[in-house]
Amino acid sequence: MTRLPHGPPDCSSKEHCSVTRRRALAWGLALAASAGPSLASTAAWPIRPLQLIVPWPAGGATDLTLRILCEEAEPLLGQPIVVINRPGAAGTQVAPLLKAAEPDGHTIGQVPITVYRHALMNPVPWDPVTDLSPIVQVSGTTFGVLVPSTSPWRQLPEMLDWARDHPGELILGSTGIGTTAHLAMEEILLQRGIRYVHVPYRGTADQMLAVASGQLMAGVNSTGFAPWVDQGRMRVLAIFSAQRSPRWPDAPTLRELGYPQSVYTSPWGLAAPRGTPEPVVRKLHDAFARAMQSERHLRELARYDQTLDYLNTRDYRQAVRDTVEREKRLLQRMNLLARPMGATG
Questions:
Q1: At what angle do helices 313-333 and 278-291 cross, to 10 degrees?
Q2: How many helices (H) and strands (E) does the chain have?
Q3: How far is Cα 339 from Cα 345, in angstroms, rounded to an integer?
Q4: Cα 13 to chain centroid, rounded
Q5: Strand segments (E) across the chain
């Protein structure tokens, strides 16, 4: 540990001023060094290339949009940003990797909402609320309720009314148990007291094929359904966004249909390890907040039917806490909330 003098000596006489100034400078430098990264290193940060952990395979929509975002942010930060793909476990690999990383701002990660949900549903050795430091929310995804083009249902209330009158007969697919698609539809069906058959799928392609072929009466999915709708093989009954989609303007939102709380966009953002100095977090926020507004990045988002869903650091942190509390209540009603460690029965 650096041993500091009690303070800079006073310049009490003319002949001592030169010595005094040298001592004062040495004292100030020692104080800054002892204060850690918040004083000593953030002014020059970043001092080496950054790493961005992306918990999805290379070449996917999120990976490609993030690479464009990084290219736009690099000149603002003055360092390259290296994308590190760590797919698997529904996008949750980023959490333990960030927890283990040095909290110096040189390692950050893309954090999907599944990270927080997974920790609620499973006993894991990390807590995304306390182990991660949110930086900025970037974007979200459009989710929709889909039916085959041959379906008699042309509006969502028609499907819900039929399902209410035929308990347990609606066969509906999602992208998996506990996914946003599953929880979004489950919330509506619980409100209406509707019993149905849930069929979870591991991927978008399999589920959409099942909907298009009539194996499923309906499905809930993200914008991976776009090609199927464009080909006329299925139609969108409603979307879970706050506003109507420019691509499917005839599809109402769930909010318009009387479900004001049913806004699901699976928002995602960037986060750093806990303990990253606030001045560094501010620099990261400012760079990425500016980069995400670039025309090139916005075009890339639109290419995958995504929109900008920006939240600053303070609002993003609050949104994370609010989302965790909301999903905790829903998962508890669905009996999907993880039991505390050591609980039995």
A1: 90
A2: 13, 11
A3: 10
A4: 61
A5: 50-54, 81-85, 107-111, 132-139, 144-148, 171-174, 197-200, 218-221, 234-239, 268-273, 308-311
pLDDT at residue number 24? 43
pLDDT per position as a tens digit, 168-180: 999 999 988 888 8
The CATH architecture annotation of domain 144-239 reads 3-Layer(aba) Sandwich (3.40)
How big is the chain, counted in residues?
Answer: 345
Residue limits of CATH 3.40.190.150 in the chain: 50-140+267-333
3-class DSSP assignment, residue 278: helix
> Could you give the C-alpha distances from 185 to 14, 52, 154, 167, in angstroms and in order?
79, 32, 17, 16
Cis? peptide before 46, omega within 30° of 0: yes
The answer regarding whether domain 50-140+267-333 maps to CATH 3.40.190.150 reads yes
Query: What's the whole-model pTM score?
Result: 0.74
Tokens representing residue 177 in the block: 């148990």
